[in-house]
Amino acid sequence: MMYARSTSITGDAAQIDACVAFLREEVMPTITGMDGCMGISLLVDRDVGRCIATTSWAGEDEMRATEGQVVPLRDRASRMMGGEAVVDEWEIAVMHREHETEEGSWCRVTWMQCDPAELESMIDFFKDTVLVRLEADDDFCSASFFVDRGSGRCCGTARFATREALEATREMARRMRDERSATSRTTFPDIAECELVLAHLRVPELV
Questions:
Q1: Residue 49: what pLDDT?
Q2: Cβ-contact 195, 163 below 8 angstroms
Q3: 12-33: b or e for each residue (b if 16 or more CB lie within 10 Å)?
Q4: Exposed end of the chain (fewer CB within 10 Å): N or C?
């Protein structure tokens, strides 16, 4: 069982490139040198000034033990972007790759909220419905599904080779959200479409 910590900051879009450089040159070497860290990725939405950094960890204890070490890095990124950091910790329930992860590909990140009692059903829906339909698309590259078992909060990410391929699947994604909403108490509080600019998460296949 592997875990992930995601940090999302929305701020000054003009500072995106500076934030990317900071993550690549300073944060990544520091984070990946910590005990239990498997890797790091960074998604950006240049239109709204949003950065989503995700680190992967070999276990929950290793992830929690580093919290104090990452706070100064998070604070610097927040000041740089002029926005407040939102931090989530997750269990990685699904990780599937059709193609190797490449920087410059595009991702749709979908946050979900369900009853914790329905969480296993939500994971099954992602595996049996979402993944199956995504795999039918030639431009589909990979997908992941993160969960917080205590709260019922989930985060699914689907990656495509190009921005155009991502945009072409918007209607399919909407239909799947409607399908899940109609058969459960799942809501979808946020959706982001982002460029993958740092691809070193290093999570093995988990399906």
A1: 98
A2: yes
A3: eeebbeebbebbeeebbeebee
A4: N
